[in-house]
Design goal:
This protein is mainly alpha-helical. The chain contains two helices and no strands. It has helices at 3-41, 60-70. The protein is elongated, with a radius of gyration of 20 Å. Helix 1 packs parallel to helix 2 (60-70). The chain has one domain. InterPro entries: Lytic_TGlycosylase_superhlx_U (IPR008939). Keywords: Signal. One of its GO terms (molecular function) is hydrolase activity, hydrolyzing O-glycosyl compounds. One of its GO terms (cellular component) is periplasmic space.
């Protein structure tokens, strides 16, 4: 009967770990995205590491600043 509570606890911990894995992978690139976004706002494109933020769900904000900087000369 002692194995039952341990089994339940292990199952809950494994579920929590698996549910948190996507957040861990995004957390690794949050600082890179923050740096890239700050560089994009200042139009310092050499500082933007596109490969580091390639899989981040918010990478579109960096692209937004790139397009915004090109707007006066950008064709439709």
């Amino acid at each position: 009967m002692l194995a039952l509570p341990f089994r339940h606890t292990a199952r809950v911990l494994c579920t929590a770990l698996l549910a948190g894995l996507p957040a861990l992978s995004w957390g690794a690139t949050d600082s890179e995205l923050r740096d890239a976004l700050a560089a994009a706002r200042e139009q310092q494109w050499a500082r933007v590491d596109a490969a580091a933020i390639e899989d981040h769900p918010l990478r579109g904000y960096v692209e937004y600043h790139r397009l915004k900087a090109q707007l006066p000369n950008l064709s439709p």
